[in-house]
């Protein structure tokens, strides 16, 4: 006899998760992401990291631009700012400078960050704004239905590249390292425990922390950055990697035959707010 199991509705599942009390950072708004999207794993990781770090929801702000990834603040029970395409970092910088006590987490997709928003990243990084930038990299424009992005791999067939993508993808890790980001790491949505640890470390870092998360778009990419391909190509950074050595981090970031996850680089220096506080003290003395 055929065994027909009862359907599971997302609303029921969410209620069950909420009753468990494990995801206090999730809002009552149901995620609109496609079933299987890597973003579920990232959002769960952020919630877990915030819980484990004991962050107060009233002191936490999630900021985004536009795209599937950028819908994230709606699904979080923190303060949120769904801003303009590519403009999350200037908004987040303003929030942090206005109130240093806030924990500011910026999220966005590869298009939002490196296409329209590409001009803002070097400045947030070099000024060492004390915020965390979590980049949801699926190598494609998801929200606008599957065009290539600046991180699309060579040979990727999309609606905008019917004869295959021939544009060299950017190397975001190399870019962030050379922009002067004081903390740079990579994680994978298919490795949720490691991902959560990386998110915690990123938020804990004092200064500009950049976490690049590889995350499959199950709807518009059936061939390139899929779970199957990433499961095979993602490996941890070597045990002897020295995250205090910028040159070592840059060498690791240039590995192309597989994807390495872990902390590439970590260093400490004054933040933008430190600099502004100092200037303000000096100005008061000369006034
Ligand atoms: C000024 C402006 N230009 C273009 C768009 C159209 N648009 C919306 S989202 C998007 C790209 C989204 O891709 P990505 O940032 O990679 O995020 P994903 O949807 O994959 O998470 C584009 C081009 C827009 N909303 N505003
Ligand atoms: S279109 Fe892609 S990135 Fe957007 S929610 Fe669906 S699977 Fe995720």
Describe the structure.
By secondary structure, this protein is α/β, with parallel strands linked by helices. It has one domain: Thiamin diphosphate (ThDP)-binding fold, Pyr/PP domains (Rossmann fold, 3-Layer(aba) Sandwich), CATH 3.40.50. It has 10 helices and 10 strands. The strands form 2 sheets. It has an 8-stranded mixed sheet with strand order 2-1-3-4-8-7-10-9, with helices on both faces. Strands 5-6 form a two-stranded antiparallel sheet. β7 (183-188), α7 (192-204) and β8 (209-214) form a beta-alpha-beta unit. The termini are far apart. Bound molecules: thiamine diphosphate and iron/sulfur cluster. The site of thiamine diphosphate has 18 residues, from α4 and β5.
Derived structural class: alpha/beta
**What is the general shape?**
globular
Q: How many structural domains does the protein architecture include?
A: 1
Largest sheet report: 8 strands, mixed
Strand order of the largest sheet: 2-1-3-4-8-7-10-9
Number of strands: 10
The CATH architecture category equals 3-Layer(aba) Sandwich
Q: Strand-residue fraction?
A: 15-25%
- Name given to the CATH homologous superfamily: Thiamin diphosphate (ThDP)-binding fold, Pyr/PP domains
Radius of gyration: 19 Å
For the terminal residues, how far apart are their CA atoms?
Answer: 87 Å
Total number of helical segments? 10
The low-confidence parts are: none
Helix content: 25-40%
Order of helices and strands: HHEEHEHHEEEHEHEHEHEH
CATH names the topology as Rossmann fold
CATH class reads Alpha Beta
User: What's the average pLDDT?
Assistant: 94
């Amino acid at each position: 006899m055929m065994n027909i199991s009862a359907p599971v509705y997302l609303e029921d599942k969410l209620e069950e998760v909420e009753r468990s009390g494990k995801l206090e950072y999730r809002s009552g708004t149901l995620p609109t992401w496609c079933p299987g999207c890597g973003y579920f794993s990232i959002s769960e990781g952020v919630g877990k990291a915030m819980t484990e770090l004991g962050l107060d929801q009233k002191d936490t702000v999630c900021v985004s631009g536009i795209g599937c990834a950028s819908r994230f603040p709606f699904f979080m029970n923190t303060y949120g700012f769904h801003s303009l395409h590519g403009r999350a970092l200037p908004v987040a910088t303003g929030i942090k400078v206005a109130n240093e006590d806030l924990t500011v987490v910026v999220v966005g997709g590869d298009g939002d960050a490196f296409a329209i928003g590409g001009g803002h990243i070097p400045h947030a990084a070099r000024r060492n704004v004390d915020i965390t930038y979590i980049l949801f990299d699926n190598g494609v424009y998801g929200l606008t239905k599957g065009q290539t992005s600046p991180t699309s791999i060579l040979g990727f067939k999309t609606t905008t590249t019917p004869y295959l993508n021939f544009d060299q993808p950017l190397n975001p890790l190399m870019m962030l390292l050379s922009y002067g980001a004081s903390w740079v790491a990579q994680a994978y949505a298919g490795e949720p425990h490691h991902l959560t640890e990386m998110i915690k470390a990123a938020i804990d870092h004092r200064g500009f922390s950049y976490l690049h998360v590889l995350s499959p778009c199950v709807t518009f990419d059936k061939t390139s950055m899929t779970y199957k391909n990433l499961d095979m190509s993602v490996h941890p950074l070597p045990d002897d990697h020295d995250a205090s050595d910028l040159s070592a981090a840059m060498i690791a970031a240039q590995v192309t035959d597989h994807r390495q996850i872990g902390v590439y680089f970590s260093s400490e220096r004054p933040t933008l707010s430190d600099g502004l506080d100092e200037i303000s003290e000096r100005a008061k003395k000369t006034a």
